[in-house]
Amino acid sequence: MKENQKIRPLAIYQLLKNHTDSSVAIGSFEIAQTLNLEGLPSSIKEVKDDLKLLKDWGFGVNEVQGEDLYYLNTKVFSDAELRIIIDAIESATFITEKKTMELVRKISRLAGESRAQSLINKSSFSTIKHTNENVFNAVATLDSCIRSGMKCSFLYFDYDVEGSRLYRKERRRYVVNPLALTFSEDKYYLLAYGDKYENVASYRVDRMDKVMPEGENVTKAEWLKNFDLNAYKKQSFSMFKGETKEVSLECKNEAVDVVIDKFGEKVNMLKLNDDLFRVKVTVQISPTFFGWCATSGGRIKIVAPEEVKLAYYEHLSKC
Hints:
It is a single chain. This protein has 11 helices and 13 strands. A hairpin with a 7-residue loop joins strand 7 and strand 8. Helix content is about 40%, strand content about 25%. Strands 4, 5, 6, 7, 8 and 9 form a 6-stranded antiparallel sheet that branches. A 4-stranded antiparallel sheet has the order 11-12-10-13, covered by helices on one side. Strands 1-3-2 form a 3-stranded antiparallel sheet. By secondary structure, the chain is α+β, with helices and mostly antiparallel strands.
């Protein structure tokens, strides 16, 4: 009997956690009945005493005013917040289909059993997923190396027309000093630098194989003292490297949403007339930036500087 007295409050707390929230409450009779069915003899009085104990000790137990109904309201995330997290996971191409469903189930359980199934049932995705199941192990190793200031190494590959892996550098390992992990255009990248070159390189995590810590501290680089990692992320289009320049774009009014989506709501737009506006943005001059301009269907034009404008025309002539 004494053992029941010790276990019962925990069992009641777990029951409330799994089956109640601010919109779903259960009574002391139902709680006692459930506990008895689970082999834990309990009276309604004992359940009420334990509910009061949990409430007094700050376990988040709430009672519906004037009714013998109780619920737990300790959820960190609302259903809407969980839905956004799930949608982001489903949209990420580097997370495999198997891992996506595993994560959706785990995250849905944060809503409690009463609502978890609803979140899972509404879950569907059309994103084309990659098949590298080692991505999460790679992320864990890379993150550990970044936090501990250690070098890491990995094999890096592309694909051939038959879908087979083609390893770069004749399957020799890349040894780098990791700086950060970043998410861009539905892909996950490692930003890192080598010992020989004064530049930051980007590597797709889903194209890595056999990621390992090197057991050696990162090489301190003098040129990194003035390196702005956040600015680098903002300027990079899909992680294609290029020279950073300030570019003037002349845009038709119907391209406002496209410009804001790419450069943010604080981008300074200068109205030229009833049809056009101009923006100045700092970007890395790359094929991806030119591709973004080209897909605007003539709504966005590069007007300065002249060398970027000419490079864009040259890019178009090769397409």
